[in-house]
Amino acid sequence: MSLLGGLLRAGASYCQSAGTLLHTVRTISTGTCCQIRMHAIPQPKKVDRWTEKRSMYGVYDNIGILGDFKAHPKDLIVAPCWLKAFKGNELQRSIRKKKMVGDRMMTQDRHNLEKRIRFLYRRFNRTGKHR
Amino acid sequence: MLRFSFIFRGRGVAKRFASSFSNESALPSNLLLPTNLVDPDRLKRPPPPADSSLPPLRKCDAAVPAHLTPVQTWVESLERQDSEPLGVAQLHPDVFAVPPRLDILHSVETWQRNYKRISHAHTKVRSEVSGGGRKPWKQKGSGRARHGSIRSPIWRGGGVSHGPRGPTSYYYMLPMKVRVQGLKVGLSSKMAQDDLHIVDSLNIPTPDSQYLLDLIRHRHWGESVLIVDVGEDFSENILQATANLKTVNVIPAIGLNVHSMLKHEAIVLTLETVKFLEDKLLWHDERYTPLYPFKLPYSDFP
């Protein structure tokens, strides 16, 4: 019964008449039902594993060790300037963003950032177990 | 990662399939054999024995510890497709015969994937979604549930309460010696599995990509080859030959890294690259801990 219902629901998208039938008539079938054939298992997506980006991934990551320490792998990171070679939770990231980029931000964005910092400060330092 | 002894060989598997499915075609169309199956063709030239009488073309510059012996490999040439190896080279065991630490390889590989990762997933909180400042209906008397704003997280179109917030970075640095050891373990693993090839220089007779592909297939190097050379200027022939090939890539020696070593099946180093790598990687075994970052000038370190 659940198999029939599943097939009917699948067939409802395939042809609209079956969809209207679903709501009006309760159909009963006594045999095996294979009238609607669908590609139930979708095709796996074809991924090219050797594009330029994938084959050259990670090159120059050891530029410090192998290149006389003139550069550091953190110079390779493509990121907004307040996130280059920095990891932190949301409050730390927000404070750093305000420090570094705050005077260049749009007024609405800056206002939201300040509200978020105020909320997170109070949340982390005044509520919960760790304060 | 250590060498397994496969019972089946490439052609043996095909023969078994041919005998069992006699009515259908010889091989199933979706058969995928791993390219590093031990193939009888590849076993033709074993690595040179430890006590071979050939004079080595290259000896280790740094002192080899007394309890270790240098690793010996053939030095080949890319000039002709079917040329014999030119000679034997000795490689330092502390770079090319290090115990296979898979955990270091894993940690260096995950570091390479994650330290540059910036996730730009961002959702708006209820205070950032436009609107929602006014109380939608009065608190009591309307019969509906009480609400304070139309952008609270339980409303459709409202803010997300615990969603991803802004560009997030996953930056961290592994200790320098761990990254160095990762390079050494990678090179040693490639050497132990016969996937490391030493070449005297990268001079090819023609800038033809097909020549390189034929050479690689003839010598059974594998599907993908990483060619590493010291210096910034490469010969025009090799650059042109590899420009159109996806699985054969040339990188300078500064760009060597564990991810590329694991991605490509075979690695080809020149003799100068071997000298450069030994020089750089062995220095870390006997250095003092830095009092200030190495990028600032030291009196005895260039």
TrEMBL record, chain A:
GO MF term list: structural constituent of ribosome
Official protein name in the record: Large ribosomal subunit protein mL51
Entry GO CC: mitochondrial large ribosomal subunit
Main localization (coarse): mitochondrion
InterPro entries in the record: Ribosomal_mL51
GO biological process terms on file: translation
Record key words, sorted: Mitochondrion, Ribonucleoprotein, Ribosomal protein, Transit peptide
Family: Belongs to the mitochondrion-specific ribosomal protein mL51 family.
Domain of life: Eukaryota
Localization (cell): Mitochondrion
Automatic annotation (TrEMBL), chain B:
Listed GO CC annotations: mitochondrial inner membrane; ribonucleoprotein complex; ribosome
InterPro entries: Ribosomal_uL4, Ribosomal_uL4-like, Ribosomal_uL4_dom_sf
Region (Disordered): 38-57, 123-161
Keyword Cell inner membrane belongs to the record: no
Single GO molecular function: structural constituent of ribosome
Protein family: Belongs to the universal ribosomal protein uL4 family.
High-level lineage: Eukaryota, Metazoa, Chordata, Craniata, Vertebrata
GO biological process per UniProt: translation
Ranges annotated as biased composition (Basic residues): 135-149
Keywords, ordered alphabetically: Mitochondrion, Ribonucleoprotein, Ribosomal protein
Name of the featured protein: Large ribosomal subunit protein uL4m
Cellular localisation: Mitochondrion
Family matches, as Pfam families: Ribosomal_L4 (PF00573)
